[in-house]
Specification:
The protein is α/β, with parallel strands linked by helices and 251 residues long. The protein is built from seven helices and 15 strands. The radius of gyration is 17 Å and the shape is globular. It starts with a helix and ends with a strand.
């Protein structure tokens, strides 16, 4: 089974990725799988992102969007403008408005639109701020991502983005050791992994970096906690995107 099958992707999808610890890697993997399936795919963001180095980048907006898209064959990356003086990376681009993404999705120009819907500053674990995530209402699938590498480490700014938000979602305070239960609590919380998810959209969390038996056991424990806390999530993925290992868990 590949990642697209694990996410139950069909021919027409707008997939939004949130969280930390593997969003860009998962999106890149789906670009590869779309190519094998002869599907047209767009890699974009509803916030900001470093442009993927292995895809042609189109910067466009408004009425120029459709004409510019005709000039480049997919797969491609799509944004509006460069971000002035970006932090932490040499180059960053500003993404599309939700209404633009919805219009693009309705045109059937692409089979899959893959959208990075928040940022994590290269951390392994996060919970969203008030203004996050920017999930397009037209999304068909939302993928909350977390890295199992966070488990067993202290909850600090070195490992987690927005520590104070994680404290609100899970039974943990700054400096305490992150457990699988804390991961499951954040993923299943209305102010965590479920924040901003449109009604009726399928939610399939992805627990990344499960490349050992021990880490797979950790992921299983986190998923069990998550399933116990919310009926909204009926399916989850534990995987090592770097190693190509993947397991699907169902309620």
């Amino acid at each position: 089974m590949d990642l697209a099958d694990a996410l139950e992707l069909s021919r027409s999808e707008l997939v939004s990725f949130v969280g930390a610890g593997g969003k860009k890697t998962a999106m890149k993997q789906l670009v590869t799988e779309a190519d094998r399936r002869a599907l047209d795919v767009c890699y974009t963001t509803s916030t900001h992102m470093p442009p993927p180095p292995d895809l042609p980048l189109i910067l466009t907006q408004g009425e120029d969007l459709e004409s510019n898209l005709r000039e480049t064959d997919p797969p491609l990356a799509l944004a509006t403008t460069h971000v002035d003086n970006p932090e932490r990376v040499p180059t960053k681009v500003r993404g599309l408005e939700a209404s633009t993404l919805e219009s693009l999705f309705r045109t059937d120009r692409f089979d899959w639109i893959l959208t990075k819907a928040d940022g994590a500053r290269k951390r392994e674990f996060k919970a969203p701020a008030d203004h996050e995530p920017a999930i397009p209402p037209a999304s068909t699938c939302v993928v909350p991502v977390v890295s199992i590498a966070a488990v067993g480490t202290p909850l600090t700014d070195d490992i987690a983005h927005r520590v104070e938000r994680i404290e609100r979602c899970a039974d943990i305070t700054r400096g305490e050791t992150i457990t699988p239960e804390h991961i499951g609590q954040v993923l299943s919380d209305p102010n965590g992994g479920l924040k901003g998810v449109p009604d009726g959209v399928r939610v399939i969390p992805l627990l990344n970096k499960t490349d050992t038996d021990a880490s797979r056991h950790v992921a299983t424990s986190a998923i069990s906690t998550m399933f116990t806390r919310t009926p909204r999530i009926k399916r989850a993925i534990a995987c090592s995107l770097e190693c190509g290992q993947l397991s699907v868990y169902k309620r």
